[in-house]
Amino acid sequence: MAAVMEGPLADLGAWKPDHCSLVKALEIVGTRSALVILREAYYGTTRFSAFARRIGLTERIVAGQLRHLTEAGLLSRRPYRDERGRTRDEYVLTDMGRDLLPAVLGLMQWGDKYLQGEQPPLLHVEHGTGAPVRVELRSETGRKVELEELGVQLNPEWRRPCPPADATA
């Protein structure tokens, strides 16, 4: 079964998924290095050297991804001064980066279930109670929604973005 495509979307052959939000998101976070840097930011890593050390990627790749995630708005740079007095930047999550947490945890949860065998290596729990945390699809009423119950509609308020102005015109 699949989601219920509603209205003009019901005929999949009559439309194309232009301007897909998933594609736009993957342009920002669709690489292994971007996702593991975000994972580390969620775990509290903020400094360049710690990112490079913890995730085992080259400094060049880490620097490029930190720059990319910062330019995209998921991280921001914040200056700090180390004990030797040199000022450097650390990387902290923005609201945009924090809002991506359910998607990243959802991928981890999927990997725990299908790729880790009997037990996952880490548990994600509510800090105060120890209760397991799960990412689920729920409606605004709080009801759990299964794939077959998911409807997909055109958003009447969405407007196609204008193409960028031609610099030579």
Automatic annotation (TrEMBL):
According to UniProt, the name of this protein is Winged helix-turn-helix transcriptional regulator
Highest taxon above the source species: Bacteria
Which Gene3D superfamilies does this entry report, sorted A to Z? Answer: Winged helix-like DNA-binding domain superfamily/Winged helix DNA-binding domain
**Which intervals hold domain HTH hxlR-type?**
20-119
The record's section on InterPro entries has: HTH_HxlR, WH-like_DNA-bd_sf, WH_DNA-bd_sf
Q: Does the keyword Cytoplasm apply?
A: no
Query: What Pfam families would the database entry show?
Result: HxlR
Please tell me the species this chain comes from: Actinomadura fibrosa
Q: Which SUPFAM superfamilies match?
A: Winged helix' DNA-binding domain
Against PANTHER family, the record matches this protein to: TRANSCRIPTIONAL REGULATOR, MARR FAMILY (PTHR33204), TRANSCRIPTIONAL REGULATORY PROTEIN (PTHR33204:SF18)
Q: Which UniProt keywords apply?
A: DNA-binding, Transcription, Transcription regulation
